[in-house]
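On clarity, I found the account of how folds are encoded harder to follow than it need be. Since the whole study asks how a given chain folds, the encoding of that fold should be made plain. For illustration, here is how one protein appears when written out as sequence plus structure tokens:
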Amino acid sequence: MDVPVLKYLDVLIGLALTMVLLSTVVLAVTQLILNASLARPRHLRRGVERLVVQLEPATMRPHAVYFSRLLIRHPLVGQQTAFSPFRYTLQWLRVKLAQWTGIPSTVDTLYVLPATSPGSVIQREELAYLLIEAAAGEGPLMDPLNLGFAPKRILDAQAALASALRAGGVEDPAATLRAIRLKTVENERAQPGQAARLWRTNAITDSAPSDFVGKLHASFDNTIARVTDAFAGESKLWASGIALLLVISLQVDTFVLVKRLSLNDADRMAFVEAADKLVTDRKALQSDASADAATVAANKEALATNQAAQDELNESITLLNSPSLKLLPTEGVINPFTAIRAAAGFGTPGEEAKRWPGVLFTWVLVSLGAPFWFDLLKNMLKLRSLLAKQDDDERKKRQDETAKEPDSKKGTTAADDLVPIHSAEIGDLSATGANG
């Protein structure tokens, strides 16, 4: 039985391409929402808050929230963005207004934060160093807005932190901070090829061998792992919700799409060509990104993530608008959502009600994510190229054998293929017994 393997594989490639397009849109929208809502910094702040509380729960719990917000906005952790001058001006006006009103309680309880945007990554040695620096009353956190004085709320938090560090074995935070700086320079001089984080880590463990460092080292990795899990969970929830809205609004039925690709050879080949072009273009983009790695690393993480999400969205819309897919109307305004609906073969609204099982199944498939479908698409295209080559080789072999067959039997047809009969018996019925 001749099984059309290539046809079935092409149908799967077309399905994977559709899922790549849909899941890429979902990924781009999800990233934009997560960045706009500061999801990463928000989860990091909660993790830092738990770490600060663990230092000395009774002392640090009243100040943990404020201190965690300060730490992730430290100039070494936070990010300077276009909104930083606006934040600085707004907070400066808040402080000045509190001073002008002359209400001491307002000034004393005012949350003063650095103008930088909250960071999304903090290293273990960075957190330890910043805590010791804050406990010593040094660094930019003591005067975040360059007012010329430290707000009372920060002084209270600093006193509580210094008390917690003394309880953890760091009796003199200022002297410990100076020792860490000197030891970091010594480590750099002794081992210049070592990573900078190792210089700082070794300097902290050598200069401040205390219960404070032990608590931080014992809890940091597990706490950050929980933070990562929480962020991943929120990302999946957003992605799942956006995917559900997308497939319902487009009414993309996987079963109808597979049926159409199985029956329509032109559409199936158009999807295969578009999939191959997508993979080729993506490889070219990845090569360009690798060549420009130094430039990309210089950009801020949030800006780079937003730009990548926007590029993914633009790429998906461009591919959907490609004439090679034969999905677009010949005239009128091009709408990518209409294109996807046309790809799934939808008709009247009454028929759409029958497609809910296929739509929900599409939601499940899209929720697997763009990386999954893109990797699957690449693997299927590789497999298709191998099968197509084998099929071409076998077809060529059959053609060659067919072409050689007349030559091999040329001039031997009468001698080899026919039963030899004596020439005298030709036409003689008595020779065959037919005369009775």
